[in-house]
Amino acid sequence: MRVSDPSARSRAWACVAVLAAVLGFSAGAAADPLPSWNDGPAKRAIVEFVQKTTTPGTSKFVPQAERVATFDQDGTLWVEHPMYSFVVYALDRVPELAKAKPELAKVEPFKTVLSGDRAAIAKLTLPDLEKILAATFTGRSTDAFDAEASEWLTTAKDPRWKRPYTDLTYQPMQEVLRYLRANRYETYIVTGGGQDFVRLYSETTYGIPREQVVGTAGVTKYGYDDDGKPFLTKEPKLLLNDNDAGKPEGIHLMIGRRPVAAFGNSTGDRQMLEYTKAGEGVRLSMLILHDDATREYAYGPAENLPDTKVGTFTQALYDEAQKDGWIVVSMKRDWNRIFAFER
Amino acid sequence: MRVSDPSARSRAWACVAVLAAVLGFSAGAAADPLPSWNDGPAKRAIVEFVQKTTTPGTSKFVPQAERVATFDQDGTLWVEHPMYSFVVYALDRVPELAKAKPELAKVEPFKTVLSGDRAAIAKLTLPDLEKILAATFTGRSTDAFDAEASEWLTTAKDPRWKRPYTDLTYQPMQEVLRYLRANRYETYIVTGGGQDFVRLYSETTYGIPREQVVGTAGVTKYGYDDDGKPFLTKEPKLLLNDNDAGKPEGIHLMIGRRPVAAFGNSTGDRQMLEYTKAGEGVRLSMLILHDDATREYAYGPAENLPDTKVGTFTQALYDEAQKDGWIVVSMKRDWNRIFAFER
Prior knowledge:
2 copies of one chain form a homodimer.
Chain A: H1 6-23, H2 41-54, E1 68-71, H3 85-100, H4 110-115, H5 118-122, H6 126-137, E2 140-141, H7 142-155, H8 171-182, E3 186-194, H9 195-198, H10 202-206, E4 213-224, E5 230-240, H11 246-254, E6 261-264, H12 270-277, E7 284-289, H13 315-324, E8 327-330, H14 331-334
Parallel strand pairs in A: 1-3, 1-6, 3-4, 6-7, 7-8
Antiparallel strand pairs in A: 2-5, 4-5
Helix pairs in contact in A: 3-6
C-alpha cells in the first residue's frame, strides 16, 4: 500500500477518525451532514434516527452488522419522469436491434418505436414495453450487455437538463447515503429497474458497490464459447420482479436482513416500507413526494395528476404513511437544492 | 464508540495496522498466515496468489473492490460425510413434523425416517430427500424457520466427533478465509446447501456475514399476520439451485462480479472453478481432495470409492483440474491439522 494510492489515503484518513473516536478526541461540533435539507420534521427524523440507533448503551442501539438501509432508485435517488431511464435505454437500443434483425422493423411494438412518433411511443402499453425490455435486456451475454449499456450511459442525455442521466441524482439523497455510511450503515439500492443495468453505475454515481444493488433480475444461463471459455447468457425469463412484494422478498434473498431504514416514492415501495417499519426498535420509513413542478416534477397526490406509468404515489399510500408513521418528504419544502450541478 | 466495545477495539487495531502500512512502518517478517498448511505447492500457490494480486503497481494487481473469493461449504469448509448437515437437520425435524401432521407418519419417505432404520434411511433416493427437505425447509415463516434451525444447530451433534456440526470446520480453510480477508478480499460462501440455513451460523462460524452467503434458495411470499404485521413465508418453489451451473449463475445474481479465487471439492463446484479460472489476470481455483481416512474421510478418486450422495470428486474432475491449472489440495499431505479442537 502506498500513500499515492488514493483509496489507501482515504482509508488512512477514515482510520485517523476512528482512532480519534476510540481514544476520545472530538472534532468539536460536527458540520451539518445534510446541508441540502431545510430544517423541518423530515431532516430532524433522519438525524434523530441515526443518533438513536448508533449511540451505544441505549435501548435503541443497532449493532453495526444490522445497520442496513435500502433505497428505491427511480424517483427516490434520481429523476424518473417522464420515463424511467432504463426504459429510455431500451427504446434507444431498438434501431440497433433492428439492424441486426431487420424483421423486427415490421412487428409491433418495435415498428412504433422505429417510427420516432413520440406521441405513439408515449402510448405504448406495459406489455409493449415488456417486449422491448426483453429484447434489449436479454438474449446476449452479460459481458455484451454490460458493454452496450455502459456506452449508452456515457453518451445519452436527459432532454430537459441536457446532461447524462447519472447527473440527475438528488443531492439531498446523496447526502443521506453518505451520512448513513459515515455512521456505519450499509446502503443498498432496491430497485424495480434492471439489476445488471444499475450495477454499471451504482459505484461511481452513488458510492454503492455492485453487490449492494438488488434489482429486477432475469435467469442467466452458463455456457461455453467456441474456445471453451465459459460465459453467462441473459435469458428472457424473470427470476425476481423487484417491485411491490418483490422488494422485501428480494431483500430477504440478497441481503438476508430486515432493513432498519428504507426510502421510496411510490406504491412499488409500499411493502418494503411496511416491512422495514414493522421491525423491532427504531425504524425509519421515508417517502419522497414529488411536489416541485418548477425545479423537478410534480405528480401523485401533490398535483392530483392522472395516473402515470411511473412513480405512482396514490392517496392510499399517503394515508398508510400517516397511519404507520412513515415520514413524507416534500421536495419543494424539505430540499433547498435538488441537483449537485445547480450551484 | 467506546473502547469497551470489542468490535470498535478490533477496528482500532486494524486501523493502527493500516496507518502503519501507509506511513511506511513494518512489523518485520510477518508470522505464517497459514500455520496448519504444510509447505508444498498448494500452500505456496495461495501465498503467491495473494502477494501477486495485492501488490500495487504490478500487472497482476487486483483493485480492492474486485477482490472476491468464493467458497463451497460442504466438504470444502467443513465435513460433509457421511451426510450433509442440512440433510441431517431435515431428517431430525421429521418427528416434529409428524407431531403437527400425524398423517405424515403413514406416507413415504417420512414413514422410513420415523422408523429409525438407519440402513433404510441411508437408502433414501434423491427425490425422497427432496420431499423431506421441502417439508422441513418450507411452508413456514422465515422467522419460524430461523428459530427451529438455530435451536438444532446448538443442540445437534455429529455422531463421530460428538461435537456440534459448527465445530467441524477445517482449520486450514479458516486460516485461508482470514488470510484473504486480512488482504482485503471479501469472502463469500457459495453453497448447494440452503441459503437461509447457512446464514444462521456463517458469521459466528466463519466470520462471514449473512449477506455474503449465496446458497440454494426458494421463493418467499410476502403476507400479513392477524395483526396486520408483514412477514415472509418460505414457499416450496425453488428459485436458485446453487449447484453446478447454478453456482456461477448465483454468483452473478448475488455478487455481480466474477471471483478471483474459488474453492470447492466436488463436481457441483466445477462450473464455479471454471468460471473463476477463465477470468483475466491471476486467478486461483482450488479443489480439496478428501484422502485422509484416518483424520477425516477418504472418498472420490483417492480411494476409488463407489459414488456417494455427497461430494462427488470424479476422475474427470481431477483431469479437468490438471488441464485447467487448478490446484488440488491433499488433506492428508497438505494439512498438518484438520480441526481447531484437535490441539
